[in-house]
Specification:
It is a single chain. This protein has a six-stranded mixed sheet. The protein has a five-stranded mixed sheet with strand order 1-4-3-2-11. 35% of the residues are buried. The protein is an alpha/beta fold. The longest helix has 16 residues. It has two domains: 117 residues, Udp-n-acetylmuramoylalanyl-d-glutamate--2,6- Diaminopimelate Ligase, Chain: A, domain 1 (3-Layer(aba) Sandwich); 109 residues, 3-Layer(aba) Sandwich (Udp-n-acetylmuramoylalanyl-d-glutamate--2,6- Diaminopimelate Ligase, Chain: A, domain 1).
Length: 246
């Protein structure tokens, strides 16, 4: 298949026109007329993946490698260092970001991973109603998302509604109509605002809440006459305990 054919297929799966104005989903690197040897699906692209991939590989990722206009290509710095290596190996790169959040990722994590019943969904916020105990809810989240620790703002012993946005969704606080909001990358001042407005927030991690992107998309790509594989990009963060540091 040529890149244009794969791009058109992905556009049907999750239309690029749904992306936010600030986003850069779609073609990042490549030539639409160039043959694709295989597809690698991942949350992000990194140096190790590029090194190991065959020439002519198409990477389909969640996070765009280029978010805004580049004023220079300094190949000693990110992301230019990765772009150079991809160009030399005739790699291609397509991103499905905020469009995929709306069509697939949020509902998948909410229903399939965490097991909540979707009551309503705004573009980026999934909501469920029911009754949850504080400790039981946190235990469920830790187990399902494989989180060793949780940062929590506020505490409600009885929770009757839960909202979720994968990735970094704290900017959507004003749109959340729930007792508890699950999202990642919660900043200090987001937490202060939530506390003042009696909104319980749980930081479920950016990587941890979006790492399901590849398995969701791979299932869609199975109908193509082209090998598609998952390459799990590494979480840039790791947890250090005092014993490990010592």
């Amino acid at each position: 298949m040529v890149l244009q054919e794969v791009y058109d297929f992905l556009d049907k799966v999750s239309p690029f026109e749904l992306q936010e104005k600030w986003d850069n989903s779609g073609l990042i690197i490549g030539d639409m007329s160039r043959e694709v040897s295989e597809i690698v699906v991942s949350l992000d692209v990194d140096d190790e993946m590029i090194t190991e991939a065959k020439e002519g590989t198409l990477f389909v990722v969640h996070h765009p490698l280029i978010f805004s206009g580049l004023t220079q290509l300094d190949f000693a710095k990110y992301p230019s260092n990765l772009i150079e290596k991809m160009i030399l190996k005739k790699h291609s790169l397509i991103a499905l970001h905020t469009n995929f959040d709306q069509t697939h990722l949020n509902t998948y994590v909410f229903e399939k991973v965490l097991g909540f019943k979707l009551e309503s969904q705004d573009p980026f916020v999934c909501t469920a109603k029911g009754e949850w105990n504080y400790k039981e809810l946190l235990k469920l989240i830790k187990e399902k998302l494989d989180l060793p620790t949780l940062k929590v703002t506020g505490k409600k012993e009885k929770i009757t509604s839960i909202a979720l946005t994968t990735g970094a969704g704290a900017s959507l606080i004003d749109e959340v109509q729930a007792d508890c909001f699950l999202t990642g990358d919660i900043k200090y001042h987001d937490a202060m605002k939530a506390m003042s407005e009696d909104l319980m927030m749980v930081d479920i991690g950016h990587y941890e809440s979006e790492r399901f992107f590849a398995e969701i998309l791979l299932n869609e790509l199975k109908v193509l006459p082209l090998l598609a594989i998952i390459s799990n990009s590494k979480n840039p963060f790791h947890i250090e305990t005092m014993n490990e540091v010592e």
